[in-house]
UniProtKB/TrEMBL annotation:
The keyword Repeat applies. Residues 1-128, 129-327 form the Albumin domain. This is Albumin domain-containing protein. One of its GO terms (molecular function) is small molecule binding. Keywords: Disulfide bond, Repeat, Secreted. One of its GO terms (cellular component) is blood microparticle. It is found in: Secreted. Its main location: secreted. It comes from the Eukaryota.
Length: 331
């Protein structure tokens, strides 16, 4: 695989800008050889050959599987990955890697048993379950996006990910969740198969950017676990990540949580929207266990306050007078 193709793997898509320069790309590639080589295997076959003489069942029904796995583990697993991926061109790379990981773990367990064939013969069912669960999660995300609409879906993501990773700045969290929301806006209207691949590949890039941010400046143990533990299961790991209970937010006064000054009255609609988004992240940092309706109530109060004061004769004075009355910390 040449640098151009590798660069496409790392940086494709409209939602995430490529942040790796050439020297960084080289360093990244050399440190991720195992993962990237498996992606190269998956992407190496474009034309689907005649597969009738090479049944995939030989990886789950042949009695000599454990011998091949034990004698030449890497070669055998790469052969499985190649054979599985060319039979399933409809699947996104991260999903195929999940199946590959499940198969490797299955053989690692089964080949220690007295009757390994009985154990690994359930492999095909496990592969189907991995694909089904991945597909269902994408479907649920797109159903939620359709139900909430672009703006409210973005707000939901911002609340969820600020709870999971409150350490980055509100601005960083806004940009990160904006990329995730944009992926849903692009991918969810597609047909089921394209939607599935689009969302999985977008998540690979967006979470990859978050993990590079963690590598440069550690965020928290949960993010570190998801980034370092399993590349294949990175997305499911982040999906399941809960509130970071170890985070203690520094106490902020109301004017530190939200920027209430006359500049808001001159702000364009997009700038005002960003201020509301940053306010939401700062609120979640302060009160991660508060009900989502409380957050939304404060955002509505903020919008009303800005509208009222910007119509007043002395807007700056109005905004400053209202700061102590603004319930930004639910107090």
């Amino acid at each position: 695989m040449d640098i151009k193709n590798l660069h496409q793997i790392c940086c494709e898509g409209n939602t995430v800008a490529c942040v790796l320069g050439r020297s960084q790309l080289m360093n990244y590639t050399c440190s991720k050889q195992a993962t990237l080589s498996r992606e190269c295997i998956i992407n190496s076959e474009n034309d689907k050959p005649d597969l009738s003489s090479l049944p995939l069942s030989r990886f789950t029904e042949d009695q000599f599987v454990c011998k091949q796995f034990t004698d030449k583990q890497d070669d055998f697993l790469q052969e499985f990955l190649y054979e599985y991926s060319r039979r399933h061109p409809e699947l996104a790379v991260p999903v195929i890697l999940r199946v590959d990981t499940v198969y490797q773990n299955l053989l690692g367990k089964c080949c220690k048993l007295e009757n390994p064939l009985e154990c690994y013969s359930h492999g095909e069912e496990m592969f189907q379950r991995v694909v089904h669960e991945s597909h269902e999660h994408v479907k649920n995300q797109c159903d939620l996006h359709e139900k909430l609409g672009d703006s409210n879906f973005h707000d939901r993501l911002r609340v969820l990910y600020t709870k999971k990773a409150p350490q980055p700045s509100a601005q960083e969290l806004v940009i990160f969740t904006k990329n995730m929301a944009a992926a849903a806006t692009t991918c969810c209207p597609l047909n089921d198969e394209q939607q599935f691949v689009c969302m999985e590949n977008s998540a690979k890039l967006i979470l990859g950017a978050l993990c590079r941010r963690h590598e440069a400046e550690p965020i928290n143990a949960g993010v570190g676990h998801c980034c370092d533990d399993s590349y294949a299961f990175r997305k499911p790991c982040f999906d399941d990540l809960q509130v970071d209970g170890t985070y203690i937010s520094p106490h902020l006064s109301c004017d530190q949580v939200v920027n209430l000054n006359e500049d808001l009255c001159r702000a364009q609609e997009e700038e005002l929207k960003t201020e509301k988004q940053k306010l939401l992240s700062n609120l979640v940092k302060q009160e991660p266990y508060a009900a989502e309706m409380q957050f939304q109530s404060v955002i509505v109060d903020f919008a009303h306050l800005v509208e009222m004061c910007c119509q007043a004769e002395k807007s700056e004075m109005c905004l400053q007078e209202e700061v102590p009355l603004f319930p930004c910390l639910f107090s």
